[in-house]
Structure formats: C-alpha cells, structure tokens
Amino acid sequence: MSYLEELKVKIENMFSPEKCYFPKENLLSFLVSNSEVRGALSYLKDVEGFKHFVMLSCVDWLEEGKFELVYIVWHPEKKVNAMVKTKIDREKAEFQSLHDMWRQICTYEREIWEMFGVNFIGHPRLEPFILEDWKDMPPMRRDFDTLHYVNEHYEWREGREESYKPRDYIGEAFDEWRKK
Amino acid sequence: MCTDNPGVWEYIANWARKHSIWVLAYGTGCGAIEMPPTMTSRYDAERFGLRGAATPRQADLLIISGYLATKTLKRVIRTYEQMYDPKYVLALGSCTINGGMYWDSYNTIKKLDLYIPVDVYVAGCMPRPEAIIEGIIALQKRIEEGRAEGAKKYRENIEWYKKNQREVFGDEMLPDYTWNFEGGI
Amino acid sequence: MSTGMRIVDIIAYPFIAFLIGMLYMGIARNIIGRIHRRWGPPVLQNLIDVFKLYRKREAGSHGVMFHLGPIIMVTGVVTCLYFIPMLSDGRWLKGFSFDGDLILVTYLMVLGALGMALGVGQGGVPFGVMGVTRGLTRLIGLEIPYFIAIIVLMAHYNTASINKIIELQAGGLSNWAMFKVPLAFIASLFSFWGMMGASPFDIPGAPQEVASGPATEFGGKYLALMMSSRGIFGFLKLTLWVDLFMGGAANLLILVGKTFVLFVTVLFVTSVYSRFKVEQAVDFMWRYPTIIGLIALVIEMVR
C-alpha cells in the first residue's frame, strides 16, 4: 500500500470527504465541507508534512449554483500532491481567508476576488489587482458574456466578419482525416 | 533654419532619419521574442541603421509587438507621448490590426489606430523577422517621402484620439503633462 | 603663417577631432558587428545618428541647468582639446600649448563629467542620478593610476609641457616614452581603457542595467550634444596618449595611424570582457595598475 493510499484511509476516517479519489498518479483529491477545509489543510501541513502550497483555484459550476475552491499542496519529501476542494454558494460567495497558513494564499485570494467575486473574510488587502477601473461583473464568471461586452465597448474593424472561418475548415479536414 | 516648409534641409534630414531609426521595442505579446533575432546576427537589422534605444526620450520608432490589454495600452500611450517629434509606430501581428485570436476578449483592444497613429502594420501571427524587416523598409520609404508624420497627426487630432482613449479608460484617464507641453515641463 | 590661416586652423581644430572621433565610433560598431558575424552598420552611421538627433523637432527641457549641462560638457571637452597639440610640426594644428599644460589638461578632463552631473541632477531621473554616481565613483578609481603615470612622466622628462615631452621623444622608436617608462605606460593604459568606456569599466552607461545611465532623460539636440562631445573626447584621449607615450605625430596621416592602433586595443578589450561591478572596478584599479604605477615611480626615483 503506497503512501497516498494510506493517506486516503486516514482522511476518510478523520473527515467526511465526499469524493476521495486519485485523478492521476501521485495526486489525491477530495471534497470536504466548508468548515473542514482549515482542519484538512492544517492536518496535511503540520502532521503529514505537505509544506509547499502550490496554488488556489476556483471553478464556476453555474448549473449547480456553486463555486468550487481548489487548494493544491505538495509534499517535498514524498513527492506527492494533495488537492482539497470545497463548494461554496454562488449567490452569497463568501469564504474564510486562509492567508495565515501560507502567505502566498493572499495573492491567489485577491485574484479570485477580482475575477470571480468571491469575498474572502479576513483578507488584509482586497483591492484591484490585474483589472484597472473595472465596473462590470467579475469577468471570469461563466454568465459574463464576453462577446456582448466586446460589442458594447470596442469598435470592430470592417472586413473581419467576411473572412473565412478557420473552425469550419478545420472541421472538414478533421472529418476527412477521421474517414481514413 | 525653418522646420515648417520642406526644403533641402528637410530632404537631407529625412534621408538621415531614414537611415538612423532608434527602436523602442514594447514587448507586449509573443512578438517580443521576434525582436532579438531581428537585431542579432542572423537577420542583422543594424545594417539598416536600426539600434535599440534605452528610453522613450531617445527613441524614434515604437514597435508594438502583439496584443494590447487596456492596462497595457495606457502604458503604451504614455510611452508614445514621451517620445520626441519625428516618431513612428510599427505594429506587429493581427492582434493589433483587428484583435486577432483575442477577438472576443473583454480586455484587449481591437484597433490600435483608434488610440495612437500607426505608420505601418505588419500582418501575421506572429510575423517572422523577415516580415518585420519588410515593414521597416516600408517605413523607410514613408519617411523618405515625408509621409510618416504621425506626431503631427496626433497633435492635430488630439481631441479625437483622447475621446477614443476615454471610451476605453473611463474615469481613469491619462495625465495631460505627457503630451501637453504648452505650460512647460 | 598668415593670421587668416591661423584662424582657419583654430576653427578647424574641434571639427577635425569630431569627424575622426565619430568615424572611429562608427568603425568600432562595424568591427564589433563583424565579431558577431553580421554585416554591422555603415562606418558613417554615428555621423548620421548625430545629424538626425540635431534635426529632431522637439527636445524637452527641465530647467536652466538641464539645458546648460550638455553645453558645459561640450565646452569643457573643446577647451581641453585646444591645450593638446595634435601635430608636432610647429605649424599646423598645434593648439594653445604652453609650459605646464599637462597639469591644466588633467584638470579640464573632469569638466565634462561635472557638466553632465549638473544637468542630470536637474532632470531628476533616478537612472540618471544612479549613472552619475557610478561614473564619479569610477573616476576615483581611474584617476589614481593615470595621475601616477603622469607624475612618472613629468619626473622622467623634467617638464610639465606636452610639447617638450614630444620633442624629447624624437629620434626613433626606442625614444618613445612607452619604451622609456614601460611600467607607467602599462598602468596608464588601464585608465585609458576605462576612460574610453571599454567593456570591463563601462559602468556609468551600463546598457541593460541602468537604462542608458546619465543620458536617460536627454533626447533630441541635448543627446546630440552629448554624443558629439563623446566623439571629441574619445579623439582627445587618443591624441593625448599618442602625444605622451607614442612620440606625437608630425602629420595627420601619422596621427590617424597611431591613434587607430591605440583604438584597436580598446576594441579588443571591449569585445572580450564583461562588465565589472562598481566596487570591483574601483578595487581592480586601486590594486593592479596602481601597484604597477608605484613600482614605476620607485624606479624613477632611484634612477
């Protein structure tokens, strides 16, 4: 039994993960409730030795009405990753800030606040980061219509719409290739 | 020496400008990586008199190499306004012409010539160094004929350019002191 | 010689230095291009650049001192040039040489850097201030071996006049000061490479590091003035070293030949070495060339 399989058993005993599986070799992924995130990350960091924080990402599940926050950590000695996920409500997008565990979470949370509009409670510096002077809804949300926004704000150069469409061409070529 | 009406001096000056273009390469997108091969031994743009300039004050040509986000555009305009009068703009790639592959992106501009006067566009995604050199030769032809008067065009149509810029930037407009020399620096 | 010819001679003095200096800079760019295995720019490229810069229609100024800085620089360089005799035949291009001009020249050579520092100070660009600080720090390093070499020379020939030194070197290769006092020549050569901006000592300008150093905020005609003064200053230093150590020149052809040989040594150094840090440059200058110069001084005292 490898280290990650042992870890999976421990996690299943300690927390109540919904989906606990291996998306690929040396990566363990599990979904926990909101209140268990800090506990799970603390356990991975302090007890198991996942010292390095890789990234924090956000996934927009529009149909479910949820945002999924994904925390990825890395074990430098065992050379394995662990992925802690949690789902928060999309309408009232709020979550606790975890910047006290790893300093670099600050920057990730600031970006997610800007791009998805998730409010991190207790974050020291929630202010515009990449976008300057942005007034619309956060642009990485899936219900943000980029084409509509572009039509409203920018001017098209004439002739663009008559040009040939690469998607059609690639489609035909792909079909021909499939027939062979 | 009068600089307004073209004469022999202006003809000689245009010849010198044509053979001595100092480049400020603004590496925004993938075109930044096409600039080093253009300048180094394989394509050697220095034989046309091209030379890298360290600051906008010394530069003649602003090369915009790739897509421009609205945030980057603000810096480009400030850089352009800080350059001194005979100044040219060379825009690379389809991104600057019509948005290119970022045609439906919410934060990249689609037409560069709405915001600053562009002398030469080089099409391609991304144009190779040969194409860049073609563009520079086209620019040299324009300079020799005295048609590369981007700075004059910008000064005369400043309201139109500023209106277009305001549409993109909204309240956070650029400061005036980079282009308005009336009150002295 | 008639008075009219004398006036023409005096007026032509800085222009000859300017033309030859700019040509040398163009040749340098071309040769470095060839070392990179490319064609390189034409030889006249630097003259075209300067002409274009003079014909720029705008040039922003930041005040009176910013305006005067490049002018002081050119003035200092041209004044210094007039005290260095280009030719030693006593008729043409002899400048305003007098007894003790060697001491005056060492003072005037700093005036260009001083003018630049004053102008940059009013520009207020951090890169420019950084470049000036680095330049003046480097000057502390460069001047020690240079002054020691000059003291050795003055002690050897028992005069402080450049014309006298040239006269005393006459009569064949073995009479040149570079063979009479070889250690002093070697020590001064390091300072010479540094003053010419050769690569291990090019810390004030420092491309890719501090934009273009002191020239960062200068554009248009101001940059043209600075480039012209750099060309004149380059030829000035070449002439001074030819006068002091290589027996001077009887006509323009010999002058060009001797200065070109010296200039090629600068190019060799530039193409081979990479840049020192500021403290490394000063450290190097205070160690090896200074020790060589001091040994030369001791030998001179004992002799």
Average predicted local confidence, pLDDT of chain A? 88
How many domains of chain A? The number is 1
Strand/helix succession of chain A: HEEHEEEEHEHH
Euclidean distance between termini CA atoms of chain A: 45 Å
Shape of chain A: globular
The name of the CATH topology of chain A is Beta Polymerase, domain 2
Percent of sequence in beta strands of chain A: 25-35%
Low-confidence stretches of chain A: none
**Which stretches of chain C of 5+ consecutive residues score pLDDT under 50?**
none
Fold and architecture overview:
The complex is a heterotrimer of chains A (180), B (185) and C (303). With 180 residues, chain A is an alpha/beta fold. Chain A has a single domain, classed as NADH:ubiquinone oxidoreductase Nqo5 subunit (Beta Polymerase, domain 2). Chain A is built from 5 helices and 7 strands, in the order αββαββββαβαα. By secondary structure, chain B is an alpha/beta fold. Chain B has 7 helices and 5 strands. Chain B has helices spanning 8-19, 35-39, 70-82, 93-98, 129-144, 150-156, 158-169, and strands spanning 21-26, 50-52, 61-65, 88-92, 120-122. In chain B, helix 4 (93-98) links the parallel strand 4 (88-92) and strand 5 (120-122). The two termini of chain B are 25 Å apart. By secondary structure, chain C is an all-alpha fold. In chain C, helix 1 packs across helix 10 (221-245) and helix 6 (126-157) packs antiparallel against helix 9. Chain C has one domain. Classes of the chains: A alpha/beta (180), B alpha/beta (185), C mainly alpha (303). Chains in contact: A-B, B-C.
